[in-house]
Amino acid sequence: MDIEGRSRISSTDSDRIPLAFGGAAGTDAKGNKTYSRDSDYDPFSYHEGLPFQPPSPFTGSTGHFAIQPTVCNGKLVFVSEGDLFYSDSYASSSPVPAVRLTTGLGNELHPVMNPECTAVAFAATYSGHRELYVMGLTEAGKQNGITRLTYTDNGVGVTGVLGWSSSGRSIIFTTYSTDASPDDVRAYEVAISQTEGEDSVIGNVTPVPLTQTTDLKRHEGCSYFVRYKQSSNTNQYVGGTAESIWAYCEGETTSVPLTSSWPGTSKSPRVFKGTHLLYLSDYTEQDGPGLMNIFATPLLKKDQLYPTNGALMKTVVKVTETCDTLMPIMEFSIDQTTNDIVFRSGADLYLLTASAVEASISSGTPAQALKIDLEIQSDFSQTHERLIPVSLSSHVTAADVVLTKYGQVNALLTVRGQGWVAPASVPGVSGAATFGGGYAKVPLRRYRLAPGYMNGGALRVMAVKVVNATHSLVLATDQLSKHGAEENFYLVRSDGKGGVLTNMDAEASEEQKLLRTVGSAKEGGLGSVRANSIAVSPNGNLAAFYDTDGRLSLLDIGKGEVKVVDTWIKEFDELKFSPGGHYLGFSHSARNQFTQISILDLTEDEPAVVHATSDRFNCRSFVWGDGTLYFLSDRDVNTDVSHPWGTRAPMPHLDGKRMLFGLDLEEGKEKMFGVAELAEEDGEGGAKKAKKGEEKEEVFDFGSDSPNQDYALARKAYLIEGLPPAQYDGLVSYSPWKGGSVLYLLDDKLQSIDLETSSTSLWLESVYGFDNCDASFEFVWCMDYYGMHVMEISGYGEVLKVDLDDFAISVHPRLEWFGMFGDSWRMLRDYFYDVNMHGLDWEEIYDKYLPLVARVGHREELDHVFKLMASELSALHVFVYGGEYRSVMDYEESSINSVGSLGAKMSKTAEGYLVETIFEGDPDFPYISNPIYSPLSHRTLSKSNQVGLKAGDVIVSINNEDVRSLPSIWYALRGQGGRSVKLGVLRKASTGAEFVVVTAISSDEADELRYSHWEWETRQNAKRMAKDEGFNVGYVHLRSMSGAKAENAFMRGFFEDYNKEGLILDVRNNHGGNIDSWILDILQRRSWMYWQDRNSNITNGGLGWDEQFAFRGDIVVLVNEHTASDGEGVTKGIMELGLGTVVGTRTWGGGIWLASDNTLVDGGLGGSAPEVRTYLDSGEDVGIENHGVTPDIIVDNDPLANFPTSKDAQLEKAIEVLKGKVAERRQQGPFFPRGDPIKNIALEEGVC
């Protein structure tokens, strides 16, 4: 590798492709696009190689994405572009015209027409919170506009609209439970009309008597409903939350499973002609699930369901076949008047006539569906060009700084997928004064790194790095690659003259115009580069980077060649070239997982790795100095816990403090700083070259150290005195300022220490964080709350501020959506744990879903494409969320519209709102969660000398308004979270009304309070039931396994009850995290010795036993289908280690871990990629992925029996199991063993 001499960058006009549109394109053997040298091609601009053109203002059927159809008497309502559309006839051989019903900013979902076909109910986000609305479809009804029906006091809002009652007087919808419970989606019914003489019930919301209900259809006194909702985007899913159809009939006390014999998904039950139940399922006659299709089975009614205690559906007919499109059916609707069916697959709607369905059921063969040719006139308002104001914290993802040949300091910014140049100047001083010579009066300007505004986001820039005063290295997607999605490096002029150098070497052949190493790592391509890892050598010859496949690579910028460094190291962190560019330092994980700093010697033909620090400590965040490597290390291992005695088993704890160390690498420690400055311009626009005869040798003395020898070099490191141990964020740079200084970040302040005097200096306050501070050998720059600031590394000169005022970028959404689709596809390929993609042809997956992108007219519709594509992996932990969705209102408006809560379950009556339950959490921990008590609780109101409410009391007014005159009591609580409200109350034990003043809580706080109430109630029930059975028990519920909050919950529940005979670890509804090993470590402790003094022992508060706080009783783990991820990990660990018995239902099935770091340009996830698999000592898979943990004892909480009394069959079984185990243990001896009598050493009488 040639690293001597000047950079091999040529900027002559003959080597620069002109910037223009179009050009004659061809393809190479790999399918990548190629352009002739004479053609006009600019990879940073829009060109004909893109799969589609920006849309014209009005287009026909090919430009629409239709979802969620509802049909009634030949009429059709569906969702497209986030709005509702209507057609008065869907059954037509000619194009079906549709008109837009809604135009609000909030997107509409889940439309359902009423039985009379005169109105449609739907969910929308008009208030910033998804709520239930209704609008008329007749001319008179349309004039009445849209009516809001719900004001939910939870953090989620309405999650679905299920249908109308047969009378059309109420609407059934789903939302999170308003009862005391963990996160649980349930069905509710809201009354919208009443008959004459009936008590006022309009607006009253009553629960459907079921738990875990995500869909429901009623017929002749029976309800056919769906349990669960699979949260991951996963095809062929057979885990614990696989949707399943159940039934219950009025007057019965239990519900009946209908599709439980099929391990896959069955959902969306619909009644067809009163004789059959139609539903969606991935059922096949093979071993595993297939694509989602419509199936039919004879409708089982009450007399058929209950005498047989749950007759399973025995005759199943596949009504549709999607093998031709390979697209699953996502939703369908039955017209109860005509019995026709309209379903959605991909982005299209299809029609199944009633006669075709009947023929299919009769013959047992799939029916032929007809594609509905929708004719929609639209302005595609959400595809118009957008000017996006730049947010420093959200949009600027990387920065570098360059000093131009004219003396101007410029910041090179990566801004939301685009490369920009922004000038830095002294605040308040005219920028023109910063130029010299003939340019002294030229005003500063901010500009895109390369022209081509019509790019519009199709190409994504990941990083821009300075090469020299005139050129930059850009990592961006390569539109010449087969899908326009692969990454490539470009050499770009950054001095404002424009130009993309696709020829990286003046003598390169035509084939070397671009890096042709694009593609996956498996194919030898770049794969997906970790953009924040790119480092360019000071002389501009080399760039170093690593990728998602753990490869460290070197790019010869002049030649355009990439070489992968041969090393066992795979987990890299910082990369930094030495000042002379002859060495590359990098931090990485050692084999024992400690962080280590190593150096790559680039002076050798085959670069060798030398370890600069030992693997006995964590050494990271390093900077190159004057022949010395400075770094932070935690090598002083000092715990702030001195012994294991005391409650909650104190364990060694390291405070995270690090110290500054130096390692001299140059013999005689000659000053090497400034080598990078020994260069000059080789003519206008030319590359830097060293001044002849002035470049100093940069030769480090590593001794005989090598990766296979002792750490002799590492042991030469020494402590830098004067900088006390602290929790430093990291080192930023070395500066020659004063006697030589090291810049570091501590408590969000950029500071330096003088290496000669040990004095410290403040450079900048309020930095965003270590990731937002960086340096070259010339400048240091940081982002704070006021902007981006640049300082000379020498420490002299004024602080410059980068011009980010009134900064906006142009984006053409459809072009950007195309680019985002390619990004998502590539990153799933390169981040997914299995390089073989579970056997899928990932190229075919791209081709399969690309046509749908051209149909997208709304950001959320792009998510539909992401979900379809990502679900092909058949892996859990695949989530699609985030991104720049259409904003309804700003933060202040959203706060005003947010519904407050009184922390109670209430129902509307003729008098007002009846208080049914007042929620309260664990009273022994009143400061742990906020709030712990309802605003109506006596514990809350007694603090202001008021009397709390009780169940049975009625709220009749709020802020002096009669609640009966309001659409809902929660209507008056909008914007009241955290504010006081006056309530008029009729107490149960009183005859007159009185007033109380309470402070409402937010909807998110209400969710927390409901959950806390259930948790406290369940704990009390467990202890009461155990006491009734004659033993004692501890109870710990973990909502998640994430961070300190989960650790605190375990400590609060476990250590106080460590001496009980039984322990219930309840991880039902656990969302996962990563602390399973810590919990398993505690639960594996074993007692082997006991202490006793003359008056105390283990029975009366004595020292107990060793190992301290080892649990000696029996353990039962409670799980359910919503036990997920690390909640499953701790459960499986307890099973594998033989620590306890697992009771409940099969869990979610997420066994591959993820990092969620494959984000898109707008901050969203187009499918989080599971990245780390798990396996056992035997090498076998742990068995969790796409299956879940099967309990030792399977017990289900019947969704009907569990409501409303909250009968907890799983908890009852846990008590039963522990009772038996405690009885067995007691037969073996007392729970607290007694020591043998102390030996009597007194001499017997007469013995001397």
UniProtKB/TrEMBL annotation:
- Region of interest: Disordered: 1-36
What are the residue boundaries of the Tail specific protease domain, all occurrences included? 991-1196
Q: Which InterPro entries match?
A: ClpP/crotonase-like_dom_sf, PDZ, PDZ_6, PDZ_sf, Tail-specific_protease, Tricorn_C1, Tricorn_protease, WD40/YVTN_repeat-like_dom_sf
Q: Where in the cell is it found?
A: Cytoplasm
The segment(s) forming the PDZ domain are 900-989
Family membership noted in the UniProt record: Belongs to the peptidase S41B family.
Protein name per its UniProtKB record:
Tail specific protease domain-containing protein
What is the native source organism of this protein?
Triparma columacea
